[in-house]
C-alpha cells in the first residue's frame, strides 16, 4: 500500500463507524431508538411469565391483543423514523398518542417504562430538524480602486471599524 491511497489503508471498522455516524446524523436516530425500545416492553409484558422459585406469575390480561398492536405499531414507527425521516412529525405524534393510549390498555404502558421511552422518542421525533449544510466561505469584497477584488483581503461587506470605534472612509 502506498501513502497516496489512504482509503485502502483504513481499517474497515473505522469506515463503518464513520458511515454510521453520517447515516445517524441525517435522521432522528435517538427518537427512533427510544420509540422502538418503548414498544418492546409494551408488547412483551402482557405475554410474559415470571418465575419466582416454584411460583409462576402470568401477566396476561384481557387487553393482550391491544397491547401487542400498540407495541408493534411503536416499533414500526421507530423504524419509520430511521428509514423515512420525511414523515418524522407524523411518526412522532403517532408515537406520543400510542404511548398515551398504552397506559390504560397495556399494563400501565409496559409498567411505565415503555410509556416513558415511547413518549420521549415521539417528542424527540417531533422536535428534530435536519441539519443545515455548512455555509460557503465569503468571497473577498472589492475596495475602491480595485474593481475586480484581486487585492482585497476583507471578507465581509460591512463598514470597516477601527480600534477606536470609528468608521473608516473606505467602508
UniProtKB/TrEMBL annotation:
A Pfam family matched in the record: DUF6114
Biased composition (Low complexity): 149-159
Transmembrane portions of the chain: 28-47, 59-79, 86-105, 111-129
UniProt key word Membrane: yes
InterPro entries in the record: DUF6114 (IPR046096)
Signal peptide: none
Presence of keyword Membrane: yes
Positions of the UniProt region annotated as Disordered: 137-161
Keywords assigned by UniProt, alphabetized: Membrane, Transmembrane, Transmembrane helix
Protein name listed in UniProt: DUF6114 domain-containing protein
UniProt organism field: Streptomyces pyxinae
